[in-house]
Amino acid sequence: MKRAISKLLGTAAAIWSLSAAGEAQAATAIEMRDWCREIVLKIDDPTATASTFEAGYCLGSFITLRNTQTLNGLPRVCAPEDATVGDFMRLYVRMVDDMKAMPASLADNWFAAAIVILQYEYPCQN
Fold first, then answer.
1. Taking the domains of the chain in order of start, what are their residue ranges?
2. DSSP H/E element including 116
3. Which of 3, 47, 88, 106 could form a disulfide with 113 if both were Cys (CB 3.0 to 4.6 A apart)?
């Protein structure tokens, strides 16, 4: 497991540079995790509230990631057809929570962290 994560972290710098190229300031992995947690709680408990702009930013971001993956445009991520936006967000929140020491290239940019997490969870066989 550590070897697989280390291998994926090797791609993080390249992904980070691509995702940060046109972006003034990306949300950090921790910020996005906190915003996504509101949505995940709402999905798991319909009586919970998730009404902040940031929660909507998370939802829209992961809808975009899921749609891009559906079009086979997400680099080296092979999620099953039935993987949902909620699955992506739950995975992201859980994995960021579990990362004790995150490299700066991931911690500073939620998108780079999300790609590495999705690649780890949904590796392509070829």
1. 2-20+27-121
2. helix 110-121
3. 106
Q: Which helix (H) or strand (E) holds 20?
A: helix 2-20
d(CA 73, CA 84): 16
Distance of alpha carbon 111 from alpha carbon 106, whole angstroms = 8
Return left, alpha or beta for 72; rule: phi > 0 is left, psi -120 to 50 is alpha, else beta: left
Question: What's the CA dihedral at 46, 43, 104, 6 to 10 degrees?
Answer: 150
Q: Residues 98, 4, 59, CA angle at the centre, nearest 5°?
A: 50
Q: Give the closest residue to 116 by CA, choosing from 88, 77, 66, 81.
A: 77
Amino acid letter, residue 62: F
Q: What are the backbone dihedrals phi and psi of residue 80, each rounded to the nearest 5 degrees, phi first? A: -65, 155
Q: What is the DSSP letter of 126?
A: -
Which residues 6+ apart lie within 8 Å of 103 measured at CB? Answer: 9, 12
